[in-house]
Amino acid sequence: MPSSAGHHSPTLNRRGFLRASLGGSAALVAAPAFAGWLGAADAKAATAPAAFVDDYKTNVMTNQTPETNAVVRVLGGFAQVWKTGAWNTGVPLMPEVLRANIRYCERITAERTEAEAKEAFVIDRQHQSYSMIDGLGPLAALYKTGAKAVTSVTSAPDGTPPGKISDAVPADAPAGSALGAGSYDSELGQVARLVDTVRGNWASSNPAKFAFQYPRPWRMNEESEVVDTGRTDEFGFPVYESKVVVAPQLLRQRGEKPADDGGFPSGHTNALHLASLAYAYAVPERFQELMARALELAHTRIVAGMHSPVDVVGGRIMATALAAATLTDPANAELKAAARAQALAYFTERTGTTADTLYAYAHSAGTGTDPYADRDANARAARPRLTYILPRRGRDQPLTVPKGAEVLLETRLPYLTADQRREVLRTTALPAGHVLLDGSEQWGRLNLFAAADGYGAFDTDVTVTLDAAAGGFHAADSWRNDIEGDGGLTKRGTGTLTLTGHNRYHGGTLLAEGTLAAASPGALGQGDVRVAGGTLRVDKVLRVRGSYVQEGASTLRLPLRRNHGPALTVSRRILLDRGSVLALRLDAERPPAAGTTVPVLSAPALRGRFDRIELDSETLRAIPVYTADGLSVRLVRR
């Protein structure tokens, strides 16, 4: 079986009874892997299981029960769907879910193109840590060179190869080259070591595969039954009553012993996500793109006919938990810090950038050479792959973020505290009600793609401090989610925070220091806005739903565009203190001409005046025209 990993634990319900998060009692008694669960309930009733990050090293082959294996516990939601038996005697507990699971595989494999089949072969046979490198985009080639990372699987045959194919170091590879993430004896050796550590001794999917005994889709029919037709194919494999078509290139690569070749969870998926999270820790400039690539490559397991959606979801869940556990482990503290420092130093030197400009370089390619250059396209592809065919039932429930999960955002949102990173994970999480995702600790509900874009809600007031001198994300970052909630935002520090979402938080916005950039009309939510210091920069237009107050020693920076309404519209009133500055910049595409009057501010009531008005033009100057309900400027030649 492929390698992978995960975590799940039993919990007590409100009445103090053990919640059957691994299925009903009949299923647990009948299933060999879970036979001890209920018997151990009384002994465990007084003490909750250890958190996954504290117990992840129990994931070894000798442990195949939820009591003994943290990965089996974290995947326990699957036992609500599937009653474990021998590999060919399991029983669907939610037949509608597993029927949809196999039908999805049938449709995807029936619609598969030859190019998709070949891609699925490459991802199947190539070292997963190497496959993930292309998620680094413009940095990928530099990484392969610096890490001495190589592969022998670069293309797929037109048909079925004569035997099994494994990745290997090519004979003509440079001396010291290595598979996967690369050589430890290289300029990126610490990064390679981190990837291998995250994918280390406790990251195998095999214990969970043996525990759940859920067959691969090509062995199952729509009823999730294994029916052997008594025939064999040209390769000697039994032919099952299944419409799932394995890619021709992979027919000889299949496991030959069904009892040792379970489908749930997908080991390749686990490995791909583990590698992506390790790379993302070391190179957070490509965090979100690496999440998108992991989801895309995991999908090829379904395209190949080798796995089903529930297998892939299970692989993602266990990888999320395992990566957090490994990165949280104090034994790896020096390694993860060294890997991040090494990657930053290497890439800035090779690209001629700084910590402040590396992000821009890492996103400098178009979709022609970087398949993940379009963030919105990534989001559209990623979201359905987090749940696939899983229906949602019941009401949403708040998520208690699993212990240690915040480490996954440690380098991507370094300016936030650990508690704030937990809030980001909580407010961007998937809703409750998806079976599998609601297992012990609910690791499956974490949406790391969305979390890379900051908060999803301000449920309480949030204060964020960015430090320009610290560089990188400390100096400047963008939050792209649509932020809701009753809380408000206070921006401090010398750095720049950009809000791009259509935000609906109600608690107001306070800019105390640095720069706050509003990149959408609703960027600052639905409350009051107060600029007490620093610069509020409006990229196009801004609508303030409450009042707008600007105090001394602060700047409002607005664009001026020909034949356009006010750049700032306020629903209540505008108050301007003495000492405040208005900085105007001419729109590059449609600048207004000399002699025109351009509206700037609009509100039911305006009180006060700016101390001065600046215009970024050597030939024009702006003459203010104040009224009781707004401000315009008349442009005249100098």
UniProtKB/TrEMBL annotation:
<dbReference type="Pfam" id="PF12951">
    <property type="entry name" value="PATR"/>
</dbReference>
<dbReference type="InterPro" id="IPR000326">
    <property type="entry name" value="PAP2/HPO"/>
</dbReference>
<feature type="signal peptide">
    <location>
        <begin position="1"/>
        <end position="35"/>
    </location>
</feature>
<dbReference type="InterPro" id="IPR036938">
    <property type="entry name" value="PAP2/HPO_sf"/>
</dbReference>
<dbReference type="InterPro" id="IPR013425">
    <property type="entry name" value="Autotrns_rpt"/>
</dbReference>
<dbReference type="InterPro" id="IPR006311">
    <property type="entry name" value="TAT_signal"/>
</dbReference>
<dbReference type="Pfam" id="PF01569">
    <property type="entry name" value="PAP2"/>
</dbReference>
<keyword id="KW-0732">Signal</keyword>
<protein>
    <submittedName>
        <fullName>Phosphoesterase</fullName>
    </submittedName>
</protein>
<dbReference type="InterPro" id="IPR011050">
    <property type="entry name" value="Pectin_lyase_fold/virulence"/>
</dbReference>
<feature type="domain" description="Phosphatidic acid phosphatase type 2/haloperoxidase">
    <location>
        <begin position="191"/>
        <end position="327"/>
    </location>
</feature>
